[in-house]
């Protein structure tokens, strides 16, 4: 049974940093895309960042230069380093894995709350 468990969320002041972690279990995802999404209150879930095999990374424009996604295939982990946080980054952050090359993400974590105070 595949499980994704996020950790590292919390309350931080604007300009601060947090590092989110996602532990995957149940199978190996070294060749899969792993990503982070977020959902703010009253808004739809949105893409934040993703990493594919080979080290290719993608970011939504609003976090470029501030967030960094990374992965440790040996540990089946994916991370999101978030620097210079802004109040608009406040959301529940979800880890997700896509097994196929394209299409929807197949597995999702339960989410971790990130709150940025002004």
Using brief descriptors, characterize the structure shown.
118 residues, mainly beta, four-stranded antiparallel sheet
Write the layout of secondary structure elements.
Elements: E1 3-7, E2 10-13, E3 18-25, E4 33-39, E5 46-51, E6 57-59, E7 67-72, E8 77-82, E9 91-98, E10 107-108, E11 112-117
Parallel strand pairs: 2-11
Antiparallel strand pairs: 1-3, 3-8, 4-5, 4-9, 5-6, 7-8, 9-10, 9-11
Span from first to last CA? 40 Å
* Rg over CA atoms: 13 Å
- Overall geometry comes to globular
Could you tell me the mean pLDDT?
Answer: 95
Describe the protein's architecture and organization:
This protein has 118 residues and is mostly beta strands. A hairpin with a 5-residue loop joins strand 5 and strand 6. The termini are far apart. The protein is 0% helix and 52% strand. It contains no helices and eleven strands. The model has no long low-confidence stretch (mean pLDDT 95). It has strands at 3-7, 10-13, 18-25, 33-39, 46-51, 57-59, 67-72, 77-82, 91-98, 107-108, 112-117.
């Amino acid at each position: 049974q595949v499980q994704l468990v996020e950790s590292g969320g919390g309350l931080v002041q604007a300009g601060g940093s947090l590092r989110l972690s996602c532990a995957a279990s149940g199978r190996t995802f070294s060749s899969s895309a792993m990503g982070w999404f977020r959902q703010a209150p009253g808004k739809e879930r949105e893409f934040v960042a993703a990493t594919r095999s080979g080290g290719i990374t993608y970011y939504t424009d609003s976090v470029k230069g501030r967030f960094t996604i990374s992965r440790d295939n040996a540990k089946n982990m994916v991370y999101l380093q978030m620097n210079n946080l802004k109040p608009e980054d406040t959301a529940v952050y979800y880890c997700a894995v896509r097994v196929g090359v394209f299409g929807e993400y197949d597995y999702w974590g339960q989410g971790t709350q990130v709150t940025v105070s002004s």
